[in-house]
Amino acid sequence: MAPNPKTSTISTGQNGFSRTAEWRDTRLDVLRALALLAIFINHVPGQIFENLTTKNFGFSDSAEAFVLISGVSIGLAYGGRFTPGNRLASSLKAARRAFTLYMAHMITTFMTLALFICGAWLFARPGLLCEINILPVLTNLKEGIPALLLLGHQIGYNNILPMYGALLLLVPFILLLEAYSPLLLLLVSGSIWFLAGAYQIAPHNMLLDGYWFLNPLSWQFLFVIGIVCMMHVRRGGSLPRHPALLALSVAYILLSFVWVVFKLWTIGNMLAASGLPLVLVGFDKTFLSLPRLLHVLALAYLVVNIPAISHWLRRSSDHPLTILGRHSLNVFAAGTILAMVGQVILYITNNDHVVGPLYVVLGILIQLAYASHLERKRLLVRDGVKAVGQAKPLAVPVAIRDVRSFNRERG
């Protein structure tokens, strides 16, 4: 879903980054692809593969990874272009991308409604209409449809794109402040994150009480961290690599693993009872509580600083995961629709233990095939543009010769 820059960084320095490159760093594509596949698996709940995704082994899940990767991608796609004289064009590009995300969200939302309504009607399972926040819309269409269009009501499992679209609208302001002072940007962004979590500041729902499931005022902090890190590398800097930081990251990831696997949530309740703000000691996803934020940052630190992981992620440009991550928005939209179909099928089959896993495998294969199809189309367009570009220089001399011949014939 993030912009896919034509060029990216390559592994040369301490952290595997350099300032310039002539080809894509496929690690971002592969990481994005893995996040998309995990999101798809988690969006078909009730099957065994769901137990194998990262949410079962730590505080954060694929959504945090995706937003951090998106911040890095924004730094690559827009950071070098957001200069005086080009800022308006870059801002408009980000706004157009946000509108594209909005349209994709509308498509997946209304497709979800259609799938669940058809499933309830064709298989006589009216209980489907009570799933994933659909009923408030159907019982009040006069207010429900405008609420969907205005993002004031979001269907379950269809709430990542609104948050990410809101973050894209903030990109010009983020990059402008980053150009002035990256440290000031982090301080402002962190303050907004803390205040939003401490005082429950978020876009409100229109049909039901509560807030957006993923609050952009909270999630922007993780997004900004990704942008600042990438811009620092673009300017020739490197991310700190120190044994103490590596040890702390490993220790925190292990703590998170033990906490989640052995369900030590009572300790969290004791911390919450101490009076500290929940944004610091809770595990809330809406407001991106600190334990979730630190967990994804610790994972990212290890990915960047452990050569074996970094090397494994660097796949060829024609690797299926690279291709899938390159076409992230289209694949995400297709994966969302496939996941909604899967939810209907599992509801009808009463969460059959065979149907669920088979469907997930089929859904992943379909997404890989779809990404491959999109890649073939992209290459055809690229080759066509190259062919036209190569033909243009020949056209001018031919035209000149024709004019000269015409003039000679006229004497």
Automatic annotation (TrEMBL):
Pfam families attached to this UniProt entry: OpgC_C
Transmembrane segments: 28-45, 57-78, 99-123, 155-176, 183-201, 213-233, 245-267, 287-308, 329-348, 354-372
The entry's keywords: Membrane, Transmembrane, Transmembrane helix
Record keyword Membrane present: yes
Organism: Rhizobium tubonense
The protein's name in its UniProt record: OpgC protein
InterPro entries on file: UCP028704_OpgC (IPR014550)
Highest taxon above the source species: Bacteria
